[in-house]
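Tutorial, part two.
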Amino acid sequence: MTTANPELPEVDTSAADEAQPLLPAPSVYGDRLFRWLTAGMACTLIVLIGLIGWELWHGSEAARHQFGFKFLTSSQWNPVEENFGALPFIFGTLVSSLIALIIAVPLSIGTAVYLTEMAPLWIRQPLISLIEMLAAIPSVILGLWGIFVMVPFLRDGPYQWLEDTFGEHVGLFAGPVYGVGMLSGGIIIAVMILPIITSVSREILRSVPNLQREGAYALGATRWEVTRIAVLSYAKKGLFGAVILGLGRALGETMAVTMVIGNRPEIAKSLLAPGYTLASVLANEFAEASGKLYVPALIEIGLVLFGVTIAVNLIAQLLLKSFGGNTPSRAS
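Running the prediction step on this input gives:
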């Protein structure tokens, strides 16, 4: 026996529909304005780079017309006779930056690995704070420390030992020992770029997903194997980018290097001999430059430094693309 269900009463929803607030229609003009505003901000950077390059190109016109490509291959720098060549400064910039990277990269990445993977929590934050404080020290202060502390110590100790032990057999450490020189410039640059590479590398290693580490531990890997295979291999692109940031700082460093590199415009085989960099010659000589070609030659030095920086970054981008592997993303 079946019974019929009573019909459900109809509910009037018109009042509820009228009380429901309507969502505002999306503003097409607001989206367009935001897109064009952000695009304009991005284009501003390109315009600034173009303006800087144009001003350097225009200001160095007299020197480029007088010396041509010989300016990049000549070792002469004689303001009295107005005979200028940038090769010693290019050599000093590249060599001092290379020395700085050789010293700073292992220390920076090793410190970042320790802070990320191995350091106890109670010591991690104090070390991070000290590294950030080192990055905040003005370069002129590091230059003064280099003159009065670092150079005398290196001259009377390690440099003298290198010259006595390897000077006769290895030309890189041939005397005489002045204290100021190419190696001192590279060391002071390494001190300056070390906190930058360390901080960026630490953030890159922190962004490696924990699943990478857990998977390696599950397969029986040791801590060193987990760090080498699961962490460093995964983050190699980011670490390479951190090194390039440090290299950009090394190429343009001025005051600290000027105080300890010796400021002699010559190409010497020994790392203990004085040298010169592109940024240092601008800082030393621009204030007293006079004459038809002296100022344009210094502006062309700035143009060369500008070009070297751009070329190094382009080469780094090409190497970065050829590395392969994964780019780490921020772990949640």
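The chain has a mean pLDDT of 84. In part three we will examine how such features are distributed along the chain.
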